[in-house]
Specification:
This protein is of the alpha+beta class. It is about 30% helix and about 25% strand. The chain folds into 2 domains: about 70 residues, no CATH class; about 100 residues, no CATH class.
Length: about 190
Amino acid sequence: MADRFSDLIIEMLGNQADDIDMPVLPSEHWQKHIQTGGRLTDGDLALLASSPTNRAVYEETYQRCLKSYIDKAANSNCVPALRAAAASGDDDDDVVFENLDGFSLSIVPSGRTGWRIRLTVLRPGFPQGAEFNVKDKTGKVWLTGTPDRDGEIYGRWEINNAPKEYIGQGLLPGIFVDDIPIIRAK
């Protein structure tokens, strides 16, 4: 049922024509929202819902911002370095990755046998709603999601081995945005 409804909405939007009196906002307007992650106003959302031209300008701007950011990130030869967090007691199992060029990745114990993984996006410029994946060179996904307002993504460590044991096999993470490598897995 939901698929049929989605198909109907897509078909309606595809057949939609612009009202001749409807404003078309410039790329710069959309760019500021995309780059800062700022919330779109109700008026912006209404324009996107009712104007194919505004949707096209938004999509073109989004793709340009994403390409620009990926080009910058691709020129950053960042190789993650593993470090055991300096701690005492039960925190000895914490895993923190350094040298992630604008990201922080940590894996900490949660409960008796579980682990929690957190990616913090520290650098600005990612398009709002971009999906982040942390995965190793085998393609095993460690974490996936969209950052919250604080730039963080949380999840459970779903790999059978404990993090240090798994990483000890040489399986270091890479960070991908919309399936494009920002930091390559080593």
